[in-house]
Structure formats: C-alpha cells, structure tokens
Amino acid sequence: MRTIKRYLGIFWLLLGLGVGYFNVIEFGLPKLQSGKQEDLVFGIINLFILTPIIVGGLVTFGYYVLSGEYDEKTK
Amino acid sequence: MNEEKTETKKNSIWSVIMASSVGTLIEWYDFYIFGSLALVISTKFFPQENPTAAFLSTLATFAAGFVVRPFGALFFGRLGDLIGRKYTFMVTLLLMGGSTFLIGCIPDYKTIGFAAPLLVLLLRLLQGLALGGEYGGAATYVAEHAPPKERGYWTSWIQTTATLGLFVSLTVILITRSVLGTEAFEDWGWRVPFLVSILMVIVSYFIRKNMHESPIFAKVKAEGKISLNPLKESFGNKYNFKFVLLALFGAVMGQGVIWYTGQFYAMSFIGKVCGVSSQQTDMLMAVALLLGTPFFIVFGGLSDKIGRKKIMMLGMFIAIISYRPIYSKIYTTIDCTGKTEVLNRAFLDVKTNWIPNTLSDSLVTTKTHKEFSDGTIMDVTRKVTIYQDQTKKPLIDEKKSIQLNTPNYWIIILLVFVQILFVTMVYGPIAAFLVEMFPTKIRYTSMSLPYHIGNGIFGGLLPTVATYLVSTAKMTNNPEWYLQGLWYPIIVGGICFIIGVLYLDKNDNKIEEEL
After folding, report:
1. Between chains, do A5 and B502 touch, taking CB under 8 Å as contact?
2. How far is B334 from chain A (nearest CA, A)?
3. At what angle do helices B115-145 and B215-222 cross, to 10 degrees?
4. DSSP secondary structure, B241-306, as one string
5. A57 to chain B, minimum CA–CA distance in Å?
6. In angstroms, what separates the C-alpha of B155 from chain A's closest C-alpha?
C-alpha cells in the first residue's frame, strides 16, 4: 500500500499540470479576451492567483508524496 | 476540592467559548450582509452604466472572498504567533466591525460620486483581511484552552458561528425589510444591518477584553520558544509546509466546496435556477440552517471519540455521491411542468412603454400569473426591449417567482437540511483537526492559510464556476442542464476525499506531542 500511495504522487503531479493547462488555455486567456468586465476580473484572479496556487500546490504535493514525505507514522 | 476545580475549569472554558464565538459570529455576520445585500449595494454605489464603477463592483464582490482572506490569514496569523492570540483577534474584531459600520455610513454615488465605490471597495477589502485573521485566532484560542480529548467538542462551538452568522444576517435583513417595507428598505433601510453591527462589536469587544492569553501560548512564550519568523517556519520549512499542503488538499479544499454547496449554491439553485420567490427561499434556508446548526456540536464531540478523519471523510463521501439525486429532487419538486393549472385564476397583463431619452426604443412588459391545483403559484415577468435599430437584437429578461405549497416547502427544507448535515460532518471537527496538525509556535499562521485558501478560493469560486457550467449546459440544450453545476463540488470534493483517505495520518497530533 505504501508503494502505491507513493507512486500516486506522479498522478497528483500530472493533475496539477493538467489543471494548469486547462486554467490557462481553456478558462483563463479566453476570459481575459472576452471584453466583459466580469470576465476580466475573473480571468485575472484565475490566471494570477488560482492557477499558481493549484499548480504549484499540487505539483509540490505530488513531489512530496513521491519522495515518501507522507508515509504513515507508526506509534 | 477536585470537583470544585473541575467546575471552575468548565466555567472558564464556557467564558472562553462565549467570548470567542460571539466575536466570530459577528465577523461572519458582517461578511455575509454585504453578500446578501449585494444587489441593493450595487445600485447605490456602483451604477452599472459606468463601466469603471461596474469593474469596482465586481472586484469588491470577488476580491474579499478570493484574494484578501488568505492575505489576512498570513498577516494576522504571523501577528498571532508573535504577540499572542488574544490581542490579534481583538484587532480583527475591531477592524471588521469598524469597516462594516462605515459601509453603512457612506453617502451614495449620487451624493459623492466616484469616491463612493472606491470607499466601499476599500472597506470590503478590510473586511476580507479581518476575516482572514479572525477564524484561525478564535479556533486556536479555544483549542488551546480545551482539555485534551475534548478539543473537537469545544472548538465545534466556533464552527457553528459561520452558519449562525449567515442565519443572523438573513434574519436581520428579513426583519428590517418587513418592518420598514420594501421601498424604505431599498431607499435607506439597507443601511440598518450594517449600522447595527457596531453595537454587537462593542459588546463583544468588552467580553473579549477581559479574557486571558491562551495557556499553551503563554507557556511557550514564557519559555522563550516562540517563533521569530512564523511565515518562514510555516512555509519555508519543508517539514511544516508538507502539512500545510496536506491540510489544504486532503481536508479544507473538500470542506470548502461542501460548505458552499450546502449553504450558498443550494440557495442560489432554489432561487435562481428553480425560480422560488426570494422571501420563501430566505425563509426555508433560515429554517434549514437553524435545524442543522446543533449537529456541528454533535459531530465535533463525536470526533473526540471516534477520530476526526473518519467523520470528515464519511461526510465528504456521502455528500459527493448524493448531490445529484438531491438536486434532481429539488428541481422536480419545484418544477411546474406537468402540474394542472387552475384556469379561472390565471391572468395576463401586457404593457408597452417608450424608453425615455431614446425616442423610439420600447419596453414590453408581460406579467403572467398562474395557479396550480396543488396550491403552487407562479408569476412570470418578461421584459423585452425592442430597439428601433433593426440590427440590434431584442433584449429579453425573464424573471420567475414561484410560491411553493406547504408540503413541497417542507420537502425542500428537508433536502437543504440534509446538505447542512453533510456540512456539519465535514466542518464540525475541522478546527480541532487543523489546530492539532501544527505546533503552537506557528499554529495561527499555518492553519489560517490553508483554511482561507480552501474556503475562500476553492469554496468561494463555487457559485461562479457552477453558474458558468449551468448556463453553458443550458445553451447546448443538455437535458440535465440544471445538474451540471454540481460537477465542480463533486470533482474537487472527490479529489480531496482520495487525498484525505490516503495521506491524512490519524496519529498526527502536535498538541498532544508538545504536552
């Protein structure tokens, strides 16, 4: 189980990158170019705040998982 | 002698709970009245014909929820770990109360022009900052007073405050509106809920003022073990940062979307997607919230006995598998298609007006009133703006207002109540869970940031993303368009559930380790 949990780190890493791609290409840039005020605010928040948190967070989390940082303590 | 000591200890915890909870409740109340009155506020301060003012309006609504709360968590979390919990959450209380009161005092756009939206935006940002600092302080303060093995129970009182804050804000607005009447309320009465806040803040300030610093923090401080740089130790140190990430992705992210689905998306779905009248929507939400609130304490207390992880993960799992059936039932219960209409009670009223200053454009307003054999009443107002310029498409705005019959009204309350139960399972134990995840010297900073990213960002995004998914599905004629908004909480909650089940370690408890 410990090995499976560790290798799932690759999945979290890829998920972070996938969400990043979707947020920038599908959701972020089109909003910035739509010309509507609401879309502009949402696009800015999405691209410059959400995406870095999700991508950076999930990629780092995936890396930590892969390197065994979350292996369960035994008490 | 021992019994006397235990009694004094219990009394002292109750006063800690009272002081912390009342203040936190007021902060949530302050935060929510802006949201609940956003429509009125936008007409007073943010005239839509001015694009810059409209931009500020959107910014004010989005920014405090998404962006500013995590910054408040960092700023006040750091202060709380450096100078103490008590003084920091006194500052957040005064900042929030002062900002809310001042929003109620700002002259409108017609009186002071562009300064009005700017001031509202500034005060809304201060509200977001204050909220970012408040919750972590209150949860930490209570948990550090609570006896071991009872932290879930005692901190769950703090957990009730967000829901009660929403309940109190809805109630104050409902009462003010019904006492003053809709016209006076929309003219000046909307200021009352903002102004009333200052009285509650003053009372809460004096209650909090007499409290002592948290004993665990005081001990760490006396031993000279407080952190010199809480931000660096929380996020620059790999050992702590991995717990910040785990708290975010394995617990708070899912909790945020479940919280917002059960309490905000439910309200917007019933009112906007299904078209139930705003008064009935507010009332049924208030009843469901009130019935659900005691369960925060039930699940918080239960988490002391069977573990926090089990309850939170079970709540998350049941929520994500039952959202679609619940919302499908809500929609079919309210939907009037297929109901038998009582024809002699129906009427149609059509009015055509020329739009002033345009000479030739016209507005056609059609009002339809229908009553059904089961007692449901539906009013539809359809406004069509017809332009003289043939190249411009007519602008159609349709508003439906449904008055539910009594049995259906209670079915909807039950369906919202079930969702609030999920919220209480996930949210009830989470304060104790977060507090126990981090050591005393950086606890305030470390727990506040994931909480406000999970709640403010993942949860706060829910209405926008869900509305986007629903409107896209409606445009593409998806037969189940009304359920498509649920994919956001289902996917985010699902990922969080898997991460939580796999990686949260029930043996991690920094408070116990320190003691």
Report:
1. yes
2. 30
3. 80
4. HHHHHHHIIIIIHHHHHHHHIIIIIHHHIIIIIS-B-HHHHHHHHHHHHHHHTHHHHHHHHHHHHH
5. 7
6. 26
Whether the predicted model's global pTM rises above the 0.80 cut: yes
- Minimum CA–CA partner of B239 in chain A: A69
CB within 8 Å of chain A, chain B residues 16-55? 51, 54-55
Tokens of B75: 């700023």
In the block, which residue shows the tokens 């609401």?
A38
Cα–Cα nearest to B308, from B420, B425, B419, B422: B425
Tens of pLDDT along chain B (515 residues)?
455 556 656 668 888 888 888 888 888 888 888 877 877 888 888 776 666 776 677 667 766 767 888 999 999 999 999 988 888 988 998 998 999 999 999 998 888 888 988 898 899 899 989 989 988 888 898 988 888 889 999 999 998 988 888 888 888 988 998 899 888 998 899 999 999 989 888 888 888 888 888 888 888 888 888 888 899 988 888 889 999 999 999 999 999 999 999 988 999 899 888 999 988 998 899 899 999 999 999 999 999 999 999 999 999 999 999 999 999 999 999 998 888 888 777 777 777 777 766 667 788 888 889 999 999 999 998 888 888 777 777 878 788 899 999 999 999 999 999 999 999 999 999 999 999 999 988 999 999 999 999 988 888 888 778 887 888 888 888 889 999 999 999 999 999 999 999 999 866 666 666 66
